[in-house]
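Q: I'm writing a short explainer about Transposase for a general audience and would like to include a description of its predicted shape. Could you first generate the structure from this sequence?
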Amino acid sequence: MSTSRTDAAVRARRHATQEMLQRLQTALAAMARDHTPVTVAAVARTARVSRTFLYQNQQARALIEQATRTSRPQPGISNSRSRTQPAWRERALNAEEALTQTQREILTQRTRIAELLGKIRDLEHDLPEGSLQRIVTENTSLKQQVRQLAQDNQHLQERLVSARQNNRFLDKRVADLESQLAPYLTTPPPPP
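A: Of course. Here's the predicted structure. Afterward I'll give you a sentence or two in plain language.
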């Protein structure tokens, strides 16, 4: 059963790859006809494929390399009009794509904002009268408690640091006193 699924997935992947290669060939032919410079970004946009596909698929790379070789201007032939037109066209396509993407992003953000505002309104309608003021008051008191607890925590941290420093000082003092008493403990007292 899993083998048939795998085979179907492989066939679907191959079919999708062939469709992308066909779109790539069509795009390259159109670019050659319009004397558009062959760049990976332009080809990906025109053929509606990802740049990753163009870099990873060997057939796609070969098609782009072949188109790049044939689209190079011949030495000694001046064709300044065909060079400026594709640059202008490329900029226009980039601007169109950026505009389309920006419009999609704005629409997505507006939809999200509308959903969130709707949720806020729903929550406000579910509250009985006067409860909003009670919630605001409780929120304010909770914030004050949090500030107070944070201050108490800071004070206790400072006291802990001080206690540790005092402990280290006292340990050092005890060690000094023990070192001063050590000679008296090892030698016997003088006879009377």
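A: For your explainer, you could say: Residues 143 and 149 are 10 Å apart (CA to CA).
Q: Perfect, that's easy to follow.
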